[in-house]
């Protein structure tokens, strides 16, 4: 039976819940490194990477080999029933990789949302406090607690009513939009004055580089002041590195570039090269605040995903992917900045390592977000064989999450297509 994208989209519409979105009306048949082929045989260059999941590319040979070998041994026991070495080894590796010169421990889960939920649980148990401060334009997940933390109602919680309480929102610093470090810190102090005493706040959670919010990186000064604020009041600092982690920013974790360490770090996405794995790594004393049985999950830290993660970490070392991440970032940023000189609508090109975005404004006005042009570029790029994603509070940011294993030729081809799209539409 031959399938077309249209016929499968029709079946999808009839069978799949409306709330599950889809950016591109494409059904993938196979993939390799930075390329995907749809059911009709069309080839696409993948600059989305499954939303930051494929830093090592689609089906990296090391990852495939590790998973195939694990499949000959055991696929599942539930770690809390019968343990297996790969889980422990992943925890050992993450305890080394997560920044912070203090003893660390790790717990593994399935998804980014789960990691964040558990980080909050751990923080509450460790501090015996319940409140959490999150930031404007944050994205922390789609489960009930993480929706409270996520700073965007539509579409994530539209029609679902109010999310769990005890979450307070501060301003994320963004010089581009007139929010200084002083403003952001003042907004935290305002929460302490107006909403919740510091002694009621368990944790402050933020993304070192905002993902869905638009790829804004937190200034070092802000991170340092936030760390000091947390230390003064006995509040735990949680760095959500689900999207920025696993080498995306040129260091294995973005926090390595922030001048301070978090107490708890969440990770997921690219850590297992396409297999579901997430986790929380943090200060051993904090992590051990939860009693046995309080953390875990049936599939959490599955043998398959752990084998994949170990292969990903090995690949980063063997193929020097952190250096490659910086090189990819420099090449793409230079290309996009050159494009910005030709098209006024590109108001800003920014990024940390290979976590790169450009923000579009009508007539070059950053305060007039051009979501329409952004959407048109995403569609036109697809028509030309390039898969892109947008993001940002106003849907006016184009983000690039290409596999770090993509060739220079592929990066240049992607840049050329983006250039063609702007020439035709802007």
From TrEMBL:
Any one GO molecular-function label of the UniProt entry: 4-aminobutyrate:2-oxoglutarate transaminase activity
PROSITE patterns (UniProt xref): AA_TRANSFER_CLASS_3 (PS00600)
Keyword terms, alphabetized: Aminotransferase, Pyridoxal phosphate, Transferase
Coiled-coil stretches noted in the UniProt entry, renumbered to this chain: none
SUPFAM superfamilies: PLP-dependent transferases
Enzyme Commission no: 2.6.1.19
Keyword Transferase annotated: yes
Cofactor: pyridoxal 5'-phosphate
PANTHER family tied to this protein: AMINOTRANSFERASE CLASS III, LEUCINE_METHIONINE RACEMASE
Family to which this protein belongs: Belongs to the class-III pyridoxal-phosphate-dependent aminotransferase family.
Protein name: 4-aminobutyrate--2-oxoglutarate transaminase
Organism whose genome encodes this protein: Pseudomonas benzopyrenica
Name of the encoding gene: gabT
